[in-house]
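Moderator note: this is an archived Q&A kept for reference. The question asked for a predicted structure of one protein chain; the sequence and the answer are reproduced below.
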Amino acid sequence: MGRTRSRDTEHPQARLDHGGIARIVPSEFTSGFELIVDDTPQSHVDLDDPTHLHFEYIVRMGAVIDQLPEGPLTAVHLGAGALTIPRYIDASRPGSRQQVIELEAPLAQLVREHLPLPKGAAIRIRIGDAREGVRRLPGALRATCDLVVSDVYSGAQTPAHLTSVEFYRELAELLAPRGVLLVNVADGPGLAFARRQAATIAEVLPEIGILADTQVLKGRRFGNLVIAASASPLPTEWLPRMLAAGPHPAKIAQGAEVDAFVQGARVVTDADAVASPRPDASLFLR
């Protein structure tokens, strides 16, 4: 997450099918560009260095990906924005095969035109709703994916139908036995939404880790939590040291800490699912 920007017409932009405007603007504080959707920063991309991960929660996703076994990955991404993580995997894991499901065709076209993918990258972009898109993926992908990433936002909120136990069961069917699911969850003080999401994912994939800024994990401010989950023990041996090193102190909660985090939280079903909390607009101001 970053800051809001005043509306402008001088940068590449596209009107989205479901309302709103997507824009690509130069990053103010680092190299590269940012994808802004309705004044909410969605992605950061450095075309000269795809391994440069700017947003903190994306850095944490990258740290988990780095723990996966060496070599190319088979990955599915839901809601990849400007394709930051697919680009990172393409650069760090040559030969990887990746599928991306993006709801907005105008956004995908904007990114392709103004933030082109590297030549030869095996990244296929499919247009459509994330949940429906998962069902339409080739059958050969079932039980073969090393990584599935769910980072879907409509504006600043994750749609309700992408938060339920039924949805996560569909994602789990894509994973290889040691495959890892990464879910970006945004929540604020109290973390009621995040606790239910962790409990819901744990209902499907029992090995859970929660990566976040320490103040966010304590429920003291709004921010992003990355939930990593698998049917097998997570490869997290080096993560605690890496996260504690900064630049902003973070940690990974596992085992008893996760049990305490989800205690009393109800599993989300299709029948009672709700969208993630909407952050206050001031969150994006610096």
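Archived answer notes: The domain at 51-270 is CATH 3.40.50.150 (Rossmann fold).
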